[in-house]
């Protein structure tokens, strides 16, 4: 039964990416420990970027 519950458990509401900390439940993002004062749209955009996988491409010289 515990395995079934773990399958449906919500992911951690706190996401750390570098120096960014995203707390989705509180709808807050901090950077280097300082809370960011963002508009709703800025928050949603940064949240999307923090959840996006990092794409790397070769650097051409």
Automatic annotation (TrEMBL):
GO terms, molecular function: DNA binding
For this entry, list what GO says about its biological process: phosphorelay signal transduction system; regulation of DNA-templated transcription
Alphabetized InterPro entries for the sequence: OmpR/PhoB-type_DNA-bd, Sig_transdc_resp-reg_C-effctor, WH-like_DNA-bd_sf
- Keyword NAD in record: no
Q: Source gene?
A: creB_2
Question: What residue stretches are annotated with the OmpR/PhoB-type domain?
Answer: 12-61
- DNA-binding interval(s): 12-61
List keywords of the entry alphabetically. DNA-binding
Which protein is depicted? DNA-binding response regulator CreB
